[in-house]
Amino acid sequence: MSFLRVMTLNIWSQQGPWPRRKELLCAELQTQAADVVALQEVLSFTPVPAPGLDAPPPPFPTQADELRADLYPYSAFAPACPVDARRTLGNALLSRFPIVQQSAVPLPNAVGPGHEPRVLLCALLELSQGLLPVFVTHLDWQLHLSHARCQQVRFIADHIDAYVAAARQLGRGLLPPILAGDLNAEPDSDEVRFLTGRHALPGPRGEPLRGAYFNDCYARAADPTDVAARAVEAGATAEVSDGGATFARSNSFAAAAHEPDRRIDYLLVGLPDKSGRGRPIRCWRCCRHEVIDASVNSAGQRIFPSDHYGVVADLAL
Predict the structure, then answer these.
(1) How far apart are CA 279 and CA 270, in angstroms?
(2) Which of 174, 204, 288, 297 places its Cα 20 to 30 Å from the Cα of 97?
(3) Residue 24: C-alpha distances to residues 61, 66, 290, 291, 305 (Å)
(4) Domain chopping of the chain, boundaries
(5) d(Cα 225, Cα 222) in Å, to the nearest integer?
(6) Average pLDDT over residues 26-42
(7) Over the stretch 58-96, which tens digit does the pLDDT of each residue have?
(8) CATH of 3-316, one of 3.40.718.10, 3.20.20.370, 3.30.530.20, 3.60.10.10
(9) What pLDDT is recorded for position 271?
(10) Nearest-CA neighbor of 8 among 191, 265, 202, 271?
(11) What is the pTM of this model?
């Protein structure tokens, strides 16, 4: 049986010790060897010209281009939020397969003017088995904005339906769609329950309730060695389940936020087709290993690839 390996990770833009983090991220991409990689909090760069001169193109238009090296000949980027005069934050996709279509769709903003905008990156990849629709997103992060994220996932589900329907008209065979990203919501939230078939949501303008269904790869096929996390409690080592947390205080960068451990990064895939393509086979977290930088202080700084852990899944093809 052949399979497709997919990965998602919020790379935390250039925060923290970016040069060292970039080395760790590149090494992790080599280790995981995913076919398709969804990235969030990715910066794109606008060149700054010298007076009277045209600006040369930047060596790496986006952070994703810094990471892809020769692993990923194809990439896509969706700008979401300007950071300053020369940097924009958005979502990106790295692929071993040709990208035959790509677009960026702004997500609803339920909070109002001045709120950080969000975007859905849409791409259609060409595999030998058929066309693969892939969607990459990053929802509002504030813990109290579940209502805003509910509007965003309802919009995303509607858009995926329309995108998949249009892709079917190409007549080249279609694989189940993949939705990947940082949803900033836990598995029992209304927004994730909607995406996994356990809750219905109305449209933002009073449209009727509707449901959606995607397989949550980690919930359906978590690797047992990932579920059993080592923890030290009361001085004793014990096997405990940490719920698959991807934003966790075990990560020194995440710990600085003083937020509870939670699973907020997802690989979601539509129902398998009649041949079983798209079925989650195995899922695990990545980017969980730290290095100690002794140049910072005597104790050394704990450096992780990002403030999030990533998620990797093998899907049946």
Answers:
(1) 9
(2) 288
(3) 20, 12, 9, 9, 5
(4) 3-316
(5) 8
(6) 97
(7) 767 999 999 987 899 999 999 999 999 899 999 999 999
(8) 3.60.10.10
(9) 97
(10) 265
(11) 0.93
